[in-house]
Amino acid sequence: MALRTIVQVGDEVLTKKCRPVTDFNDRLHQLLDDMAETLRDAGGLGLAAPQVGVLRACAIVEQADGSYVEIVNPVIEKSSGAVEEAEGCLSLPGRYGMVLRPEKVTVKAQDRNGNPITIEAEGYTARAFCHEIDHLSGHLFTELVTEYIDPEDLR
Ligand code: CO
Q1: pLDDT tops 80 at residue 89
Q2: Rounded CA gap, 149 and 47, in Å?
Q3: In angstroms, what is the span from residue 76 Cα to ligand 1's centroid?
Q4: Which residue has the higher pLDDT, 153 or 43?
Q5: Which of 80, 38, 41 is nearest to 59 (CA)?
Q6: Which of 18, 24, 62, 120 could form a disulfide with 136 if both were Cys (CB 3.0 to 4.6 A apart)?
Q7: Where are the domains of the chain?
Q8: Cα-based angle 88, 90, 92 (whole degrees, multiple of 5)
């Protein structure tokens, strides 16, 4: 495993749409392993492949119990409710803003071996899935911010 550099806002790679993952090979596994190590090191709740400069549709999300789930070619199949909460991004350090997201989501994806998976999530984990899946189509949370927050107010 190796740490990868987290791409920062302003880099074009963050605005591009990812291609689907078609080969569930060692290269994908290496990417996901590296992303997990990079996320653990950075201390965020999620990381999408474009954030390490790779335009492939996969991401990692930290779940409520602290474990990581890998989602490959994910789609949000169902969502319900709406919650406005503070959100941030490892590609925009120090910027936090209020974003309206579904309260609950059902995500369909594949695991690192191509097996279909379905994940139900709520609260902050649901938010993280939405945020990471947005990255895969080139969208950043700042497009959805209703109000920016002083990081001091979050403590
Ligand atoms: Co982000």
Answers
A1: yes
A2: 22
A3: 17
A4: 43
A5: 38
A6: 18
A7: 12-154
A8: 70
Look at residue 24 and tell me whether its pLDDT is greater than 90: yes
Q: How far away, in angstroms, is 77 Cα from ligand 1 center?
A: 20
Task: Evaluate if residue 128 carries a pLDDT over 90.
Answer: yes
Q: Name every residue whose Cβ is closer than 8 Å to that of residue 153 and which is 6 or more positions away in sequence.
A: none
Options 85, 122, 132, 152, the catalytic residue: 132
Tokens of 20: 């689907």
For the chain, how many residues are written?
A: 155
The reply to whether 152 belongs to the active site is no
In sequence order, what are the beta bridge partners of 99?
Answer: 85
Cα(75) to ligand 1 centroid in Å equals 17
